[in-house]
Design goal:
alpha+beta, Phosphorylase Kinase, domain 1, three-stranded antiparallel β-sheet, three-stranded mixed β-sheet, 7 helices, metal-binding, electron transfer activity, iron-sulfur
Length: 190
């Protein structure tokens, strides 16, 4: 049985084969028992970091349908497994107890904000998009003697963001074009 002195890391460092204290001398029983969150994950989901236009690939480790770790994907030619500080902290986007899960809404002419659940807010948005399309739909334009078929709405527009990748921009363009919108822009920087 070891004495308390022999279990002391400094003693192990000075008397053992690890004089710099970077390996065996620095390890305790608790350290030996630690298991990586990635080693116990049920599955790995491939994703893309949402913070900027670089599009760093991420591996999202899931255990019991809960995200346990997010790391850079080493197979990605974009980031080669590395993530910036914001990307490294992206797990907090979905697991933080302070994450906002409702939508703030102020009714027309109202003075107070109320919380709405996301499903209710999405239904309201869908209703308003359909209403704006219906109210602003144009079959034709131009003077009466020279009408042109346009099939468009001027009541809906889209401005994409820099965090959207090519595939998302493609889908947004298709969606808004299918709704008849012609004012579709993107402010991507690269």
């Amino acid at each position: 049985m070891k004495t308390w002195l022999e279990s002391w890391p400094v003693y192990r460092q000075l008397t053992g084969s690890d004089p710099l204290g970077r390996g065996k001398a620095a390890r305790s029983k608790a350290t030996e028992a630690v298991v990586s969150r990635t080693a116990t994950a049920d599955r790995v989901v491939k994703s893309v970091c949402p913070f900027c236009a670089v599009g760093c690939a991420q591996n999202v480790y899931v255990k019991d349908e809960q995200i346990v770790q997010i790391e850079g994907n080493p197979d990605s030619p974009v980031n080669r497994g590395r993530l910036c500080p914001k990307g490294s902290a992206s797990k907090q986007l979905v697991t933080s107890p302070s994450r906002v899960t409702t939508v703030k809404y102020r009714r027309p002419y109202g003075t107070d904000w109320e919380d709405l659940d996301l499903d209710t807010a999405m239904e309201m948005i869908a209703d308003r998009v359909l209403d704006a399309r219906r109210k602003t739909w144009q079959d034709e334009d131009g003077p009466a003697d020279n009408r042109r078929r346009v099939n468009r709405t001027m009541g809906i527009a889209s401005l994409g963001g820099a965090t959207l990748d090519n595939e998302e921009n493609y889908l947004m363009k298709k969606l808004y074009s299918a709704m008849g919108a012609i004012q579709i822009e993107n402010q991507a920087r690269i």
